[in-house]
TrEMBL record:
Protein known as: 2-oxoisovalerate dehydrogenase subunit alpha
GO biological process annotation, one example: branched-chain amino acid catabolic process
Enzyme class name: oxidoreductase
Species this chain originates from: Rhodoglobus vestalii
Family the entry assigns: Belongs to the BCKDHA family.
Function of the molecule: The branched-chain alpha-keto dehydrogenase complex catalyzes the overall conversion of alpha-keto acids to acyl-CoA and CO(2). It contains multiple copies of three enzymatic components: branched-chain alpha-keto acid decarboxylase (E1), lipoamide acyltransferase (E2) and lipoamide dehydrogenase (E3).
Gene3D superfamilies: 3.40.50.970
Cofactor requirements of the protein: thiamine diphosphate
Domain of life according to the entry: Bacteria
Known catalytic reactions: N(6)-[(R)-lipoyl]-L-lysyl-[protein] + 3-methyl-2-oxobutanoate + H(+) = N(6)-[(R)-S(8)-2-methylpropanoyldihydrolipoyl]-L-lysyl-[protein] + CO2
EC number(s) given by UniProt: 1.2.4.4
GO molecular function, one term: magnesium ion binding
Keywords of the record: Oxidoreductase, Pyruvate, Thiamine pyrophosphate
InterPro entries, A to Z: Alpha-ketoacid_DH_E1_comp (IPR050771), DH_E1 (IPR001017), THDP-binding (IPR029061)
Amino acid sequence: MPYTAATVQLLSPEGTLVHSDASEQYLPYVEKLSDDALHEFHRHMVVMRRFDIESANLQRQGQLALWVPSHGQEAAQVGSASAAKPQDHLFPSYREHVIALMSGVDPITILSMFRGLSHGGWDPQDHDNFHLYTLVIGSQTLHATGYAMGLNLDGRVGTGDPDKDTAVIAYFGDGATSQGDVSEAMVFAASYQTPQVFFLQNNHWAISVPVSRQSRTPLYLRGEGFGIPSVQIDGNDVLASFAVTEANLDAARAGQGPRFIEALTYRMGAHTTSDDPSKYRDNSELEFWAQRDPITRFETFLRARGASQSFFDEIATEGDDLAADIRKRITELPVPASSTLFDHVYSDPHPVMDAQRQALADFEASFEEGH
């Protein structure tokens, strides 16, 4: 499902600003951005892609059990996350790696989970309110909606204080829209007029199921069906992602209720490294989206604004340095004690956990020499 007449695009695939009826209301959000802010967009996207490629290589070499690529979806994530204020809360699925890095999460924390050394996790309060990865498809939309309902109850919405008014972003994919959790989240969000943005990254494939089979209409219309104002954007356009998200977050914080954004993007790689997309995807579709690469078009835009070659070289070096750093650190990670499986199941000591911990210890001891 490529772009439609409703798709908001601020930056063309050729890297030029788009002036249209749909884009005019959002262009002021872009015009206020400094060169430094624009350069940060590019830096995050390029460094993330280098991290993504290196992580996939590590998995192929046996250093990770699995990797979930985000190649091609950098603009949707960087633009939307950059629109959030410090007090906002972001609820990811499991592919929002660049937002994690932008929020100060150590990349090794992410990789250790995919290496099988931890259950993942970080304290959102220490990482710009970026919440934990959610592997259960679509359930994070319920978590986000519940949190947003709490913000209403706490009086942190619509006060007019820009440092107090708070909103929530829930990230999810096109496959998640077929889950009941997402529909339930939108029911409650619309009913309670929660301060949140549902941010759908439509990457066109729910593993091997195309979005055309999941929905006969554009997915942004799902939000409209629940009474939630909705918009479809070019998700490979970082400017559109930023501007439209900021406008909708502003509305949510002001007490105008939830919003729904469908970002049309494309999963250039596999769903995960256990998947082989060549079995079900057409090369012509891949080529269509390769010509709309979010990084290439934004680099063209920045060069036209006078960005120097040294700027691009510095970012490439930063990406290479990060790749080298994670490769070194991932191979140095110690294997945790098996007993840590039980450490955080309950906040207080629990007899069932104690019994299971002892049963595992006895089982492992049975393999010791001379036992």
